[in-house]
Structure formats: structure tokens, C-alpha cells
Design brief:
Order of helices and strands: EEEEHHEHHHEHEH
Number of strands: 7
Structural class: alpha/beta
Number of helices: 7
Low-confidence stretches: 1-5
Radius of gyration: 16 Å
Mean pLDDT: 86
Strand order of the largest sheet: 1-2-3-5-4-6-7
Distance between the termini: 25 Å
Helix content: 25-40%
CATH superfamily: GTP cyclohydrolase II
Largest sheet: 7 strands, mixed
């Protein structure tokens, strides 16, 4: 684990947010890039123990419209319910649509997938990386929240590397337990086969 230049962020708003799953504390952060990132937290996060944390990248199609092409919406709701069940933890909602390529390019990639490309090859065909996300903002948000050690809720080993690169200790990985459906089965298989995702 090594230190990389820290991201400058600023808390710009906060409130209690009652949800279907329970009440979260919501904090909005500005990273100086025109994007607003959000932390939803519950419970005591400064008790000296590693904190359950999910880094969730924005997915308009899955999170808002309920798209079945990915598992993002299910991962989001599963995590919110899980954090309330265990009584502590945080979900960071990061504005990195389409694994960092943006909404327009994501939809262009979807169109290529309809022609038979998988999610990786569709990005590459557009001249884009398979995954362009960076977790420097997430690490800065966690530091601002007083969190230095996490139980990372993810199936993606790159998120573990991404946080540890910015000096956040990942004590353990907790899997996200969402069942596949017929529309995202190939997508999930591709993530496992080509991007190293875990079960």
C-alpha cells in the first residue's frame, strides 16, 4: 500500500435521509470536477473497527430505470438493506457512469452489445478502456468520514486495489449477493471471465 497524491474534496451539504430501507445520514461532496458525489451512512463509524463500505458507481439505467442488462440496481438496493441490517456502514455513490465512460458512451456500448459484442469489447470498439474508474475521490471521502479500514462490499477486485492505492486498508471483502437474470447472465459471466470479478 502506498500513498498517492490526495484528492481535494469538500462537504457541501448533509441531511438525514429516510428511505425504504431505513434512515441514512446523507453527505454531498464536491470534488472540484463539477460532479457531486454522495455518502450514505448509518451507525457509529468511528468505533475503531473496520467499516462495511460499498463503492457504487452511478448507473442511471440500472439504479433509476431498473434495467435488467446489469446488476447495478440490485447491488444498490441489496447494499442499502444490508447496511441497515448490520446497523453500521457506508455506501459511496460515485459519479462514474458506465465504468467511467459516461452515459452517452455507455448507451453506444449497449448498442454494440446488441450486435454481439460483450461489455469489454464494446468499450474497446469505441476506443475506450474496459474500466476507466478511479477511486481517489472515494478514498478522500472515506478519510473525511474518519474511515481508514474497511470491509469492502464488492465482487470487483479492482476496487480493493483502487482503495489500497490511496492508503485505505481493505481488511476483508464482503460479496454482494444478487441473483442473475436472463438479461444480464452473459454480462455477469463476462465480468468474471474478462475482468476478474468474484462471486
Amino acid at each position: 500500500m502506498h500513498e498517492v497524491a490526495a484528492q481535494t474534496i469538500e462537504r457541501v451539504a448533509s441531511t438525514a435521509l429516510p428511505t425504504t430501507y431505513g434512515v441514512f445520514q446523507m453527505v454531498v461532496y464536491s470534488a472540484g470536477d463539477g460532479k457531486e458525489h454522495v455518502a450514505l451512512s448509518v451507525g457509529n463509524l468511528q468505533d475503531g473497527q473496520a467499516v462495511p463500505v460499498r463503492l457504487h458507481s452511478e448507473c442511471l439505467t440500472g439504479d433509476v430505470f431498473g434495467s435488467r442488462r446489469c446488476d447495478c440496481g440490485e447491488q444498490l438496493t441489496w447494499t442499502l438493506a444490508y447496511l441497515q441490517e448490520v446497523g453500521r456502514g457506508a455506501l459511496l455513490y460515485l459519479r462514474q457512469e458506465g465504468r467511467g465512460i459516461g452515459l452517452t458512451n455507455k448507451i453506444r456500448a449497449y448498442a454494440l452489445q446488441e450486435q454481439g459484442l460483450d461489455t469489454v469489447d464494446a468499450n474497446l470498439a469505441l476506443g475506450l478502456p474496459a474500466d476507466q474508474r478511479d477511486y481517489r475521490v472515494a478514498a478522500a471521502m472515506l478519510r473525511d468520514m474518519g474511515i481508514t479500514s474497511v470491509l469492502l462490499i464488492t465482487n470487483n477486485p479492482r476496487k480493493i486495489q483502487g482503495l489500497e492505492r490511496y492508503s485505505v486498508h481493505v481488511q476483508e471483502r464482503l460479496p454482494v449477493l444478487t441473483p442473475p437474470n436472463r438479461d444480464n447472465q452473459f454480462y455477469l459471466e463476462t465480468k468474471r471471465r474478462r475482468m476478474g470479478h468474484l462471486d
